[in-house]
Specification:
Strand content: under 5%
CATH topology of one domain: MetI-like fold
Shape: globular
Distance between the termini: 14 Å
Number of strands: 2
Radius of gyration: 24 Å
CATH class of one domain: Mainly Alpha
Number of helices: 14
Strand order of the largest sheet: 1-2
Oligomer: single chain
Order of helices and strands: HHHHHHHEEHHHHHHH
CATH superfamily of one domain: MetI-like
């Protein structure tokens, strides 16, 4: 187990180094940072002095090492557009994105798994057919169109929920949360449903397909022949084996909830990291763009590591291979 985790950690470090290199190349070679930081009337001599002070005349490997060292200390430079430290900007908007992602991922996982189990066990029922038909909507329609449709129905026509913004928030130290206010919870409903719908339908269809395949296997037929109750067969034997391939796909999809929250945050004007990235792209704010790239890569690396460990714990074949490899 320890050797397995160490191998995955080493792979994660390599991935982060590659992403850091890409982020550094964006940071260093997409536009001239000096031009973005000074005015048009700044003399060339002053620009050269600033370039030397920032180390932009150093060799490539020296600049990259400086970039890595600063990143490990949490120093990602100053935003060209807002003239504030990038880490502070990310920290201010991160709670909004994480709360939206957590609610969306939980909704997608719970509803997706339950609906997948239901449509697998009741595959020939009318209600199962209706659910499968409706699931095509979540898979086929783009996220921004789903969001606009929900805004039109629930915010414009019915006027039940707000169409944009985060609502009132409460400070818990440096964390600002909307979970503790009514307007914050109401503002979270539409974007959470919009962000979770694609992941929910994907998880549901994956669980359904895997569980139906497991239910047709020989050991399930043998369990039925022994007279075991359907509840034990379905949830102790079939569901456990269904989760083995589902864990990997589900983990990656839940990671993409954070990575691809950009569209949802833009549609609902949600003040998260995704909307900050969109504004930075429009203004060519390179430090924010590079930091966002490293942040998303870190999220995926952590999720992949957790998924690998869960996969190792759930699948006994991996543990057997690890023991045989050790011998």
């Amino acid at each position: 187990m320890l050797a397995f985790i160490l191998r995955r950690l080493l792979q994660s470090v390599v991935v982060m180094l590659v992403v850091a290199l890409i982020a550094f190349l964006i940071f260093r070679y997409v536009g001239d940072p000096i031009v973005s930081m000074v005015g048009v009337d700044t003399r060339l001599e002053d620009q050269e002095i600033m370039r030397e002070r920032l180390g932009l005349n150093d060799p490539f490997y020296v600049q990259f090492w400086t970039f890595l060292s600063n990143a490990l200390r949490g120093e990602f430079g100053i935003s060209y557009r807002l003239q504030q430290p990038v880490l502070r900007l990310i920290a201010e908007r991160l709670p909004a994105t994480l709360e939206l992602a957590v609610v969306s991922a939980t909704l997608a996982l719970v509803v997706g798994v339950l609906m997948g189990i239901f449509t697998a066990l009741k595959s020939r029922s009318f209600l199962s057919g209706v659910v499968m038909t409706l699931s095509l909507v979540g898979v086929s329609l783009p996220t921004f169109l789903i969001g606009i449709g929900l805004i039109y129905v629930f915010a414009v026509e019915l006027q039940w929920l707000p169409s944009n913004g985060r609502g009132a928030t409460v400070s818990l130290g440096w964390w600002r949360t909307g979970f503790l206010t009514e307007s914050g919870l109401r503002s979270l409903i539409l974007p959470a449903i919009t962000l979770s719908l694609f992941q929910m339908t994907l998880i549901m269809r994956l669980v359904r397909a895997e569980m139906m395949e497991v239910l047709r296997s020989d050991y399930i037929r043998f369990a039925r022949a022994r007279g075991l109750p359907d509840r034990i067969i379905n949830f102790r034997h079939a569901l456990k084996n269904t989760l083995v391939p589902v864990i990997t796909i589900t983990g990656l999809q839940l990671g993409s909830v954070i990575a691809f929250a950009i569209v949802t945050e833009t549609v609902f004007q949600w003040p998260g990291v995704g909307s900050l990235f969109i504004n930075s792209v429009q203004a060519v704010d390179v430090p924010v763009m590079a930091t966002y790239l490293m942040f998303i890569a870190f999220v995926f690396v952590v999720i992949n590591l957790v998924v690998d460990v869960l996969y190792y714990l759930v699948d006994p074949r991996l543990r057997a291979d690890g023991r045989s490899g050790g011998h």
